[in-house]
Amino acid sequence: MFAAASLMGTFTQLGKQFDAAHPGDTVKFSFGPSSGLSTQITSGAPADVFASAAPANMDTVVKAGDAADPQDFAKNTMGVAVPPNNPGKVTSVTDLAQKSVKVALCQPQVPCGVVAAEVFKNAGIKVKPVTLQPDVKSVLTQVETGNVDAGMVYVTDVRAAGTKVKGVTIPASDNAATLYPIATISNSNHKSEAQAFVAYVLSPAGQQVLTAAGFKKP
Amino acid sequence: MVTSTAPSHLTARERARRAARGGPSRSVPASLLVPALIAIGFLVLPLVGLLIRAPWSHLGAALSGSDATQALILSLWTASASTAISLVIGVPLAWVLARSSFPGQRLLRALVTLPLVLPPVVGGVALLLAFGRTGFLGQYLDSWFGLTIPFTPIAVVMAETFVAMPFLIITVEGALRSADQGFEEAAATLGAKRMTVFRRVTVPLIAPSLGAGAVLCWARALGEFGATITFAGSFPGQTETMPIAVYYALETNPDAAIALSLVLLVVSVVVLLSLRDHWLRGGSAS
Amino acid sequence: MTHEGSDGLVVDAEVRRGRFLLAVSLMAAPGQVLGLLGPNGAGKSTLLSAVAGLTPVSAGRITLTGQVWDDADAGTFVEASGRPVGFVFQNYRLFPHLTVAENVRFSPRARGMGRRAATSIASHWLDRLRLTDLADRKPDQLSGGQAQRVALARALAGQPALLLLDEPLSALDAGTRLDVQAELKRHLADFAGPCLLVTHDPLEALVLADQLIVLEGGRIVQQGTPAHIARQPGTDYVAKLVGLNLYSGHANGSEVVLNAGGTFVIPDQGRRGDVLVAVRPSAVVVSSQRPQLSSARNTWPAKVAGLTLLADRVRLNLEGQPSALVDVTPAAVAELSLDPGSQVWLTVKATDLEVYAHSERQPA
What we know:
The complex is a heterotrimer. Chain A is an alpha/beta fold. Chain A folds into two domains: 2-74 and 179-213, Periplasmic binding protein-like II (D-Maltodextrin-Binding Protein, domain 2), CATH 3.40.190; 76-168, 3-Layer(aba) Sandwich (D-Maltodextrin-Binding Protein, domain 2), CATH 3.40.190.10. In chain A, 38% of the residues lie in helices and 20% in strands. Chain A has helices at 8-21, 34-42, 55-63, 111-123, 136-144, 155-161, 191-202, 204-213; strands at 2-4, 30-32, 49-51, 71-82, 103-106, 131-133, 150-154, 166-168, 177-184. In chain A, helix 1 (8-21) links the parallel strand 1 and strand 2. The radius of gyration of chain A is 17 Å and the shape is globular. The mean pLDDT of chain A is 89. Chain B has 15 helices and no strands. Chain C folds into two domains: 9-242, Rossmann fold (3-Layer(aba) Sandwich); 245-357, CATH 2.40.50.100. The longest helix of chain C has 17 residues, at 174-190. The radius of gyration of chain C is 23 Å and the shape is globular. The two termini of chain C are 22 Å apart. At the B-C interface, helix 10 and helix 11 of B face strand 7 and helix 2 of C.
C-alpha cells in the first residue's frame, strides 16, 4: 500500500481495522510524497494499491499503464501550522509573505507544494521559504521542532499534530483543495485483497475515519 | 621422498617479467579471481547503467533547466569545508584516542564513531535538537546573537562534518597506532617539544593515511543527504546540495536526475583519481 | 657515589621497567668515552633511555655538570627535549621524509634557532663528516656508512653537552665498520662533553672507550680501563667477551713493530703508520718447543705468568715480547704440563691478526 504522507495517521488506523476484519490479510504501508511514490511505481516497485494526494500523480501512474479506474475518496485543504508559542506572530496566511517569517514549504512538484502555490496565488502573496522539504510530514517536523515560524500543511496534519502545533485557518476564499484518488496496481499479486481494501476505504466505515481526521468528502 | 609437481608453461615475456620482479608467482588464483570479478561487476554495472541510460543527445538542455550549477558549487565547497574542519579538529582527536590513555577512553571512541552507524536522518534530528532554533544550544545563539544556523550553508557544513568526520578519525587513529614511535623519540632527543614533534615528524609520517582519510571524508560529505535535508533544509542556491537536487529531479525530470548524477560522478572520479595518484606517489613512509 | 657540582655526567639511580630493575652508579667526565658492555637484556639501552630522558628513574638522580635532570625523591624531571643530549640510535632513525640536510638541521631548528643560523651549523657538520655531496638525498638513498655519519652529524648539530651512542656500528658490515670506527674515534676525541657508548663488540669497546663498564642483569659487575678488564675479567662473561689481545705499534707494509716489544708479520696491505693489532686468545697456539717450518709467520717465546680456569677453557697469562692472553683446553694444559713459570713458544698466523689504523691518542 503506497500512500501519500498526509494519509499516515488515517490509513494506519484503516489498515488496523481492515486487518481485524480480514484475518489472514495484513496491510503494509509505504508512506511518502505522492510524486516520489508514483515514480517508484512506474519504475516497477511492488505495490498493490496507490493512494495519491493529487490527481496529477495518479494520472502519471495510469498513463504508464500501471493502474486503471482511480476513484476519489477524500478531499483536503491547506492550513498554516505554527509552533505552539507562535514565535513569528503569524495570525493569517498573508503574514507568510513577510521577510521576517521563516516558512517551510513542500517541494513544488509534491502535491502539498502544488496546492500551497495555489493558495498563495489566491491570496495574492509571494512567499519565500527557507526550506523546501520532500513531503508534508517533514514540513510538520520543522514546525514541531520550532525551527521555522510557519509551515504550509494540510488541515488534517494540523489536527493530527495535536498540541505540538497551533493551526492558523486559511479563509475558504483563499484556500485551495486537492482530491485524493485511490486505485489498485495492475500487476499486483494480490488483486482481490487490494480491491477489498479500496472498497473498504470508500465504504462508510472507511470514510468515517477520514472525516474524523478532518478530510472532506470528495 | 617428495617429488616435484609437473611443470607449467611460461612464455618468454612472462619469464623476463618475473625475473625482473623476483618472488613467487603473482597471478590471481581462481578461488580469489571469481569473487573479485563478481565484486567488480556489482560495483561497476550500476554505473554502466547510468552511462547507458544517460540522455546524451540533450544533456545540456536537461541540465540547464535544473539547479545543477548552484547545487554543484554548493556541494563542492561544503564538502571541502567539512573536510577542512574535520582535519583541524579530527586529527587531534585521533591523536588523543591513539596516544593517550584515560578512563572512559573506549566509551569516547565508541561515541565519536557513532555517526558511522547512525542513520543520517537521525543525525540530522540530533543536530536540530542541539543547534536548531529551540535546541538546547541553538536557543542561546538565537536569543543572544539572533543567530540561527538551520537553513544556512553553515548548517550544511555542520551536517556533512557530523557524518563524515568519523571516517577521518578512524583512519588517522589506525595510522597513529601502527606508526613507529622511534622517530618521535629521536625528535625529542633532538630538542623538539611535543607540538614540534607532532607537526614535523608525526603528521608527515602518517601523510598517506591522512590523505586517504581526507578523501574518504570528502567523498562521504559530498554524498550526504539525510542529515543535510533534516538540519539544513533544502533551498536552491542556499542549502540544496547535489544529492538533494538529484532526488528532487528524479520526481519531476528523470533525465535531469541522470544528467546531474553523471556530473557528480565525473567530478568525483576526477577528484578521487587525482588525489589517489598524489598520495601514492608521495612515498610509502610508515 | 654522588659528587655535588661535579663536572660531567653522574648517574646514581634505579630504573624499573616491568620486572626488570636497573641499579647503577656511574660517572663520566667531560671528554671521556664511557663504554657500556653487556649481554642482551643487561640494561644498557634502559640506561641510555633514562639518561636521555625517555624513561624516568624510579629512584635516585641523574645530573649533568651539577644540573639535575632527574630526581625521583625531589620529584623533578627534565623532559628529553629539554636535555642537551645527542643520541645516535642503533637503527639511526633518520627522518625518512626529510633530506640529509634537513635531518641535520632538525635539532638547531627544534631548539629555537633561526633558519639561517641553523643552516650554517648544519653545513658545518655536513662538511666535517664529508656529507655535503649527499645533502639533498633522502635517507633511503644512503649506504649504511653514510647513514651512520648522518646520524652522528644530526646529533652533533644540536650542540649537545652529552653524547649517547647505542651500538653505533652494529648495523654496518665488517669492512665498513673498521673504517667508520676510526673516523668515529676522531670525532669522539674532539667532543668536549662526556660520551656513553653502548656496544656488544669488545673490539669496539677497547678501541673507542676510555673506561669500560660491564653491565649484567641490571647491575655493574666490573668497571675500569679496557686493558685492566681484559687482563682481569671479573666474570666469565667478561672474560669471554673482553679477553682480547690488543697491541699498538708502527706498521710498514708487511710488518708491525710493537710498542710493547716484538714484531708481527701481517698480511701486506701497504699499511704505514700507527696501527692497532688485535689477536683473539683462542687464535694463539702454545707449544712446548719452538715450531719448525710451519705456515705461521709469527712465533715467539713466552713464560706462563698465570692460569685462570674458565667454564670450558683455561686462560693463560703469558709474559713475553709481546705478552698475550691465550685460551687452551684443560687437556692441553695437562699434556704440556703448563705451570706458572713454564717456558713455551707462542704461534699465531698473520691472517689471524686484525690490523687497523690508529690515531695518535693512546687509549687510557
